[in-house]
Amino acid sequence: MAAGRSRWTATLVAVAVVLGWLVVGGIAGPYSGKLGEVATNDNASFLPADAEATRAQDLAGGFVDRESTPALVVYERTSGITPADQQRIQAEAARFAQVPGVIGPLPPPIVSQDKQAVQVVVPIDSAEGEQIRTVVDELRNIAGPDRDGLTVDVAGPAGLLGDLIEVFSAIDGPLLLVTLVVVLIILLIVYRSPVLWIFPLLAAGMSYSLAAVVVYFLADNDVVKLNGQAQGILTVLVFGAGTDYALLLIARYREELHRHERPWDAMKAAWKGAAPAIIASGATVIVSLLCLLLSSLNSNRALGPVSAVGIAATLLVMLTFLPALLVLGGRWAFWPRRPRHDDADPRVEHGIWGRIAGFVARRARTVWIVTAVVLAALAIGVTQLGATTLGQTQLFTQRTDSVAGQEVIDRHFPAGTGSPATVFTQQAAAQRVAQVAQGVEGVASVVPLGQRGENAPPDPNAPPKVVDGRVQLNVTLADPPDSNGAEQTIRDLREAVHAVPGADAVVGGFTAINVDTADASVRDRNVIIPVVLLVIAVILALLLRALVAPVLLIATVVLSFLATLGLCALLFKYVFDFPGVDQSFPLFAFVFLVALGIDYNIFLMSRVREESVRRGTRAGVLAGLAVTGGVITSAGIVLAATFSALAVLPLVVLVELGVAVAVGVLLDTIVVRSLLVPALAYDIGPKVWWPSRLSRSHREGDRAGAGVDRA
Prior knowledge:
62% of the residues lie in helices and 8% in strands. The chain is built from 22 helices and eleven strands. The strands form three sheets. Strands 6, 7, 8, 9 and 10 form a five-stranded antiparallel β-sheet that branches. It is elongated and about 95 Å long. Residues 233-328, 554-682 form the SSD domain.
């Protein structure tokens, strides 16, 4: 009778939890499709306040009535621009000026020296924000398609931004759909059940809805600056990590169903056994991601909290909503392979991993030495990584309109035309600064901003405009504004004009923003990576109550990270034919690979410690590997596959990050966690738990394990 009441109580609690979460999901669900409304993709706003380009941007506001972002409409006829072409261009330029958001009047069209191209500079009000895409689309509609041998493209900073916004606007739909399909397929393969896959997928969707509503209000109230990159990573991170946690809990629940007759009792035991590892894993990822708050770039500082919110929401859902669903599902949820109450040893269901554990026991030292050498050899490929700033024509995996237009500009104009660097200097030193700037290699021309305004044609006889005792010089670069050559010119230009006495010169513009962003990325990498390693070491030491094991785990994950970078460098260069990686790539790859990679070692070693208390260290290593091998490998495959979904977005930086996380996670789960870590722990024996009491415990399992090793 008491058992019946207890069963009904457990069922009512589970029903109440499920219904409560469904209400939350109904409220939060719509916000998952509204994140794009509160996202921003203005690179300049991501710069630190003390960056030189930021100070230049502040000064520029005094020289214009409205700040603008230029679109460059480029016409090309390789046989030469005809009078009819010129008439068409004049007519369309007049229509460009009438588009809402365009700042008129427009400067006269610029004809290239070879007479094969014409460029129309169309300043767009920067206040348009995300709506700049609408303005760019209208310019493209007016220009129309190529015809009669005359090509037309809309490029420049505004054209590039419009293309980027279009790419990120696809995140809410295609990326989410691809992620869902990938997770569904893998769950069907893992569970081979027409029912069980529903529970983790439903819980992951609930996690994403909860994370989305929190992030939406944080971004809407300017607590964080959400951008398209963070939005895309949030999607794959929540579904990937959520499915990982679900796999771990479900695997433990299945074990306990063999030991307990009632699902409620089995879930209590499973939750008690799996929750500490899941919480420690989630906490490690959250704290590692929050280390991005130390970044000097607003874009990085936003990615940290946004991703941390996603992991926190996932932890909450997976430890409450999912257990309730599983209790209600009971044994029939596993149909047709329903676990029976038979007190079977959980290792019986993991035959292949039992054999792998036996192999590790027989060849422990050989296994860890060989795997370490292989990973170290892969790490040599890091020398081929080539971190740089990707140019506009290198940013996309496909040829966009802005890329095609930039290629035309590169062929026929000084590449910096339409997106000049700006130098702000004291009026008394302006002439000297202009002379010095003109002498810098890579500078095509230097023209002061005249009284007639920023949209007037250059007039060397017009008096310069003076604001608060300063003059603005527009410096056209010889190289494309987003190229490495242009960035070096900006560095040389700054060094030259800063040396002019009394000038107090400040250099800004599109290229200067890229330079300051790259410098900030290097600084962030050097500061944040050591902090993340320290934080993870502390968490592992608290979880495992040891010092040797945490050092061992961190060393293996760092080795895996370097091997991943080396392998990815070779893949990017020789398989994908990418031009390089962005300056931010090493930091993002590190944070995600180390934070997520350490997860699998936490899952393994927390179970190894649990088994070591009962069996002895060496026997505990083998039991832990045998029991967790299948579920951790499945979790790694899920996470790798979900991050691979980033490849549906045609941006090189996100494709590279997706590939890097996928490759790194597979290395962690298949090589590091399956072979390197167990072999090291087995070879070291009880001392791996030093200085805890467990390191001084020599049980029968340790002696037996040592005997297997000697054999």
